[in-house]
Design goal:
heterodimer; A: about 950 residues; alpha/beta; 36 strands; B: about 70 residues; binds iron/sulfur cluster; binds FE2/S2 (inorganic) cluster
Chain lengths: ~950, ~70
């Protein structure tokens, strides 16, 4: 395919149901009411010259290039601001219009540097195109002196700002306001002097509020805002549509290429998850894919104290297979296990769990979703009958009340946050949705431009269940429950039992206030708002799941939604925001040790025999080990070999000392990854992985949307990840012969009822599909539980608050909670290898001014963070974002290793670690702890490669 | 915590959280049967009921009996 920019209809789509017919240049066209004349023309294939209009933002009508003639109207109205009317007769090309447009263009060009031939946007510039389109041949004015030769702003690591080329169309400002919702840009002064500015005149882009989402760069019609990569490489020559490999929003992108070189990632307008928007990670932070530290050759070593030795793939597979066989013969087959990754494709994940179940002969397979959303699996399956969010992202457009609990969408799920913020700000006279935030920290969404949460409940970490039960108390005792919905859709006896429980006086907000530290009146008001404010939608994240009562909190959320009838239509629902790109998919694919693909228990004879017949093996009917159980078994000396694909458990899992003891006790740790990650310090075999740009497959986002990932370049390591797993399986004697991931998907579809209608061909056709996709829903299911719950009747579960065993006391008086930041992803292995470090070069500890003062700590000071599990040092950031008694940090940097201090307490139902609550003490410090120094030495030692070149 | 201590802790935690179930002992036994691997079950059977809450202990005995009976 040769390069074509994405089609620009000039103004946004109208959602009206009413149709309007009109005639443009003698041809009739029918469009929804509210459409602009410009868009109607574009839909019919007529392009009206334009500069200040683009279809991602509302029209503004400033450039006067898009003038048209309309019968019966005086003058020449701007087509971008004129809505269609029935029977209108429009002409877009007349001698009079041509003359006017030429005049407008001439003025613009007179104030524009004429260095087109050497301009980065040459060939991809709307100003250039429009000059051509209006037939401009010469410029009669003197070149204006005021506007040219201004200093460029290179501060953003990914794009440049060259004010000399700016035509003051304000598309960038509107994109930042309307699409991204950051409102970072302003226009300074007016007329020919006007200049775009990122905040104050003294601010550059990097120092401003800008979050580098790139929406302004995409909207800019000139080379004023342009990707540095385009400046460096040149404009793209072809494009491939694919899916972002970072977070669970699952944005669709066009990978725009020059040869095998990626020039830029541009969000795809037809992407149903992102609708043409993106964040800094997906759009810009892909440099890790070519990073010099990527390992491209397999490596092996006998012991972790030896240096690595590079080998060919064949030797690596033969050696790995022989090690696994040796260990299985010596210690029994249950000594082996595998970990699948939420970063890998569905097909790759499916193969890893198949390798474990059919090849290793046990069910010791788990996924990193264990440490993030396993409680969602348990909680939503128990209450609703299936482990997934109930809505698509579009649904938020119809919400009246948005309740966010334990999630920080502007950092964790930025593109969905932008859509949410758009709804919260209100639009076109429609008032914004109301917002309730339940979070120990004052996250950005609580107060941001044009948004102010009606209620922020800054609860004490670890008391989610108490807060939600108190809300349920208010709803039931104040008669706000939707009894008609409950009678029809849920089990009434279970409801009555639950209602009686939550109504007890001990569960009132007033009684629980000393526990949650949430003001009872505020909580009552929030509960009333959620129950009576119209369509109520709940969005939650890891602040819900990563607790000792993570599963109970998920069920408490489900109870609230059922009690208020907020399930089964647009605008409502219960929505887990997934951390990594394919958390949903990893869970769907049977990565949990007790479940086969499609959430069927391994002891279920019918489900198991389906797989046994298809695979020609006998499967173990008993559940296998979960990640923490594997580590325990390793320490006990009975678990000896681990195949770990795309996951860095040493950095991401809690209580690092325990993880490293487990890994050190194994005889064969196989790490299959892009980089020598922290886990690889304990590995014996390293199999190099491929990036999402180098392979085919599918990811499933937080809306259950299955989306294609397409290969745009040859894997630098030689093999796609599914091929690596297949070749390992073959070396172990399994007869696997997939020639393309589509064949793996066919097998998944054959064995998984909710995927029955999925195939690569169908995905190609539809773009994406939301499961269940089957005979009842051949085009997928944007919203679930419409006519009834998947399990039949919705189940109310009594969730009694049980305080965590992790207690503060005189030695550890503060509560540490952990989280993430916009510019980094998970353990940072990828984003730390990009320019994103410009925004977050190190992990910082947020501490309240009162606690800081007590300890003599100032912002920027080194502090020691100690818990019962261990200690580390990092620098302090004194802020009232956190409540007194609470401290907060991120876990993106290996040198800090926040998980040295987290404990191995976990969710009662799923063993999901309790990352969000650790009792700690803070004290002044003057440098790294002994542990940090030792670990650094170990890493250096462990990363030696025999060729003599250190790998990191 | 060593592995057995951890299992005892886990069993107690499950029992506390399922205490409000209509039939807590059966619910705890079912949960352990569904999610624990055979070695973990064997370890806690061998350990006995020391340190277990009454509900957890009853559930473990119920499971152990079922296992021996079958
Ligand atoms: S990159 Fe995004 S946040 Fe920054 S100015 Fe542009 S639109 Fe606004
Ligand atoms: S920077 Fe680009 S989008 Fe913004 S006003 Fe200037 S030309 Fe228009
Ligand atoms: S990281 Fe998430 S929000 Fe950002 S572009 Fe990728 S999928 Fe979209
Ligand atoms: S495009 Fe309509 S006025 Fe600029």
């Amino acid at each position: 395919m040769t390069y074509q920019p994405q089609k620009d209809f000039g103004t946004p789509e109208s959602r009206s149901d009413e149709a309007v017919s009109l005639t443009i240049d003698g041809r009739e066209v029918t469009v929804p009411a509210g459409t602009s004349v410009m868009r109607a023309a574009a839909e019919q294939g007529t392009s009206i010259p334009k500069l200040c209009a683009t279809d991602s933002v509302k029209s503004y009508g400033s450039c006067r290039l898009c003038l048209v003639e309309i019968d019966g109207r005086r003058g020449t109205p701007a087509s971008c601001t004129t809505p269609v009317e029935p029977g209108m007769v429009v002409r877009t090309q007349t001698p009079q219009l041509a003359k006017l447009r030429k005049g407008v263009m001439e003025l613009y060009i007179s104030d524009h540097p004429l260095d087109c031939l050497t301009c980065a946007a040459n060939g991809d510039c709307e100003l250039q195109d429009q000059a051509g389109a209006v037939g401009l041949r010469d410029v009669r004015y003197d070149v204006q002196a005021t506007h040219l030769g201004q200093e460029k702003d290179h501060s953003n690591p990914y794009f440049d700002f060259d004010p000399s080329k700016c035509i003051a169309c304000s598309r960038c400002i509107r994109a930042c306001d309307e699409v991204q919702g950051t409102l970072a840009l302003t226009m300074e002064s007016r007329g020919w002097d006007s200049k775009i500015s990122a905040g104050l005149a003294s601010d550059n882009f990097l120092g401003s509020e800008c979050v580098s989402c790139g929406a302004c760069v995409q909207a800019c019609p000139t080379a004023t805002l342009v990707e540095k990569k385009v400046v460096e490489v040149g404009t793209p020559e072809r494009s491939v549509v694919t899916t972002c490999a970072y977070c669970g929003v699952g944005c669709t992108f066009r990978a725009e290429m020059r040869g095998e070189q990626l020039v830029r990632m541009v969000p795809y307008k037809d992407g149903k998850a992102n609708r043409g928007h993106s964040c800094v990670k997906g759009r810009f932070a892909w440099g890790y894919a070519q990073h010099q530290e990527r390992i491209l050759k397999p490596m092996i070593r006998k012991s972790i104290s030896d240096p690595w030795r590079e080998v060919e793939w064949d030797e690596a597979f033969a050696y790995t297979a022989s090690e696994l066989k040796r260990i299985s013969d010596k210690y029994g087959r249950n000594a082996l296990g595998g970990i699948t990754s939420s970063r890998c494709t569905n097909e790759e994940t499916f193969l890893v769990q198949k390798l474990v179940r059919a090849g290793f002969g046990n069910n010791n397979v788990d996924t990193c979703a264990r440490v993030c959303h396993s409680p969602t699996g348990y909680g939503l399956k128990t209450t609703f009958g299936t482990s997934a969010g109930t809505q698509d992202f579009d649904s938020v457009e119809d919400s009246d009340v948005i309740l966010i609990i334990g999630a920080n969408p502007t950092d964790g799920h930025p593109v969905f946050a932008s859509r949410m913020k758009r709804r919260l700000r209100g639009q076109d006279g429609r008032p914004g949705a109301k917002l309730i935030v339940i979070d120990p920290r004052r996250t950005d969404i609580v107060r941001s431009p044009h948004i102010e949460a009606q209620h922020h409940l800054p609860l004490r970490p670890g008391t989610n269940v108490a807060a939600l039960t108190a809300m349920a108390h208010v709803i039931v005792t104040e008669g706000l429950a939707n009894e008609a919905f409950i009678r029809e859709r849920c089990d009434w006896d279970e409801y009555s039992h639950w209602a009686e429980f939550v109504s007890q006086a001990r569960n009132s907000p007033e009684n629980l206030q000393p526990v949650t530290l949430v003001d009872a009146e505020e909580l009552r008001a929030a509960a009333r708002l959620y129950a009576t404010g119209g369509n109520g939608a709940i969005y939650y994240g890891l602040g819900v799941t990563e607790h000792s009562q993570g599963s109970s909190t998920v069920m408490a959320i489900a109870n609230l939604a059922m009690a208020t009838g907020n399930i089964g239509r647009r605008g409502v629902g219960v929505n887990p925001l997934r951390g990594q790109n394919n958390v949903q998919g990893a869970c769907d694919m049977g990565s949990f040790p007790h479940e086969l693909a499609g959430y069927r228990h391994i002891s279920d004879n019918d489900a198991r025999s389906l797989f046994e017949n298809d695979w020609g093996v006998t499967l173990d009917p008993e559940p296998g080990l979960r990640i923490p159980n594997m580590l325990d078994a390793a320490v006990d000396g009975v678990f000896k070999a681990l195949y770990c694909q795309g996951e860095d458990i040493l950095q991401s899992d809690p209580n690092t000392a325990h993880v490293s003891a487990g890994l050190a006790a194994m005889e064969c740790v196989i790490v299959h990854d892009l980089f020598l990650n922290e886990t690889a310090n304990y590995a014996h075999i390293f199999l190099p992985g491929s990036t999402f740009l180098e392979k085919n497959g599918t990811f499933t986002n937080a809306e259950r949307r299955i989306q294609p990932v397409r290969k745009v370049m040859t894997p630098m390591n030689g093999l796609e990840d599914w091929e690596v797993t297949q070749k390992l399986a073959q070396a172990m004697g399994l007869d696997w012969n997939y020639s393309h991931p589509s064949e793996i998907m066919d097998e998944i579809a054959r064995l998984t009822p909710t995927f029955a209608g999925v195939s690569f061909a169908r995905l190609e056709e539809a773009g994406s599909l939301q499961w269940p996709v089957n005979a009842d829903a051949p085009d997928g299911s944007p919203i679930m539980h419409i006519d009834g719950f998947v399990r039949g009747k919705g189940k109310f579960v009594v969730t009694d608050y049980v305080p965590t065993d992790e207690k503060t006391g005189p030695r550890f008086p503060l509560l540490l909670t952990t989280g993430r930041i916009l510019s980094h992803y998970n353990v940072g292995a990828q984003t730390r290898r990009t320019e994103n470090v410009a925004w977050h070069p190190e992990d910082l500890l947020e501490i309240h001014p009162v606690d800081a003062e007590d300890r003599g700590v100032k912002s920027g000071d080194w502090v020691k963070l100690a818990s019962r599990a261990g200690e580390t040092t990092l620098r302090a950031n004194v802020t009232d974002r956190v409540a007194p008694g609470v401290v907060y940090t991120t876990f993106h940097h290996a040198v800090t290793q926040a998980n040295v201090v987290t404990t191995d307490y976990s969710d009662w139902a799923t063993n999901c670690p309790e990352y969000k609550v650790t009792a700690v003490q803070i004290s002044a410090s003057n440098g790294p702890t002994e542990w940090q120094e030792e670990y650094e030495a170990l890493s250096a030692r462990s990363r030696r490669v025999e060729t003599g070149i250190a790998a990191e | 915590m060593n592995s057995v201590e951890r299992l005892v802790h886990m069993a107690n935690q499950i029992a506390t959280n399922l205490a409000t179930d209509a039939a807590p002992v059966a619910a705890v036994a079912d949960h352990i049967q569904t999610f624990w691997d055979p070695r973990m079950k064997k370890m806690i059977f061998a350990h006995g009921t020391d340190g277990l809450s009454p509900v957890a202990a009853a559930a473990i005995s119920l499971l152990a009996d079922a296992q021996n009976g079958s």
